[in-house]
Amino acid sequence: MTDDATLTDFEAATDETDDERAARETTPDAAEPDETDTDGDSDDSSATESNAGTALSTYAWGTYACARCGTTTERAWRDDGDYVCPGCKPW
């Protein structure tokens, strides 16, 4: 297949006929909503709140002072909430 293939090139590779595809797409089960569905008001707020504080960087570059030894570094790693130099980071 060339780099400039079209979507119809991929469609020809399927074994499904047009009639089978049309029957599958218009089945009553797929068209009607499931009666067990709720009104969409699920309580996702607890999941969002618990994940809100976990997105922290682990590395920073720039001019930083190590929180442990005080030396100036251009590369700092986060360890226990503080930015530390590579020498103070326990690997």
UniProtKB/TrEMBL annotation:
<feature type="compositionally biased region" description="Low complexity">
    <location>
        <begin position="1"/>
        <end position="11"/>
    </location>
</feature>
<feature type="domain" description="DUF7573">
    <location>
        <begin position="55"/>
        <end position="91"/>
    </location>
</feature>
<feature type="compositionally biased region" description="Acidic residues">
    <location>
        <begin position="31"/>
        <end position="46"/>
    </location>
</feature>
<dbReference type="Pfam" id="PF24458">
    <property type="entry name" value="DUF7573"/>
</dbReference>
<dbReference type="InterPro" id="IPR055995">
    <property type="entry name" value="DUF7573"/>
</dbReference>
<protein>
    <recommendedName>
        <fullName>DUF7573 domain-containing protein</fullName>
    </recommendedName>
</protein>
<feature type="region of interest" description="Disordered">
    <location>
        <begin position="1"/>
        <end position="54"/>
    </location>
</feature>
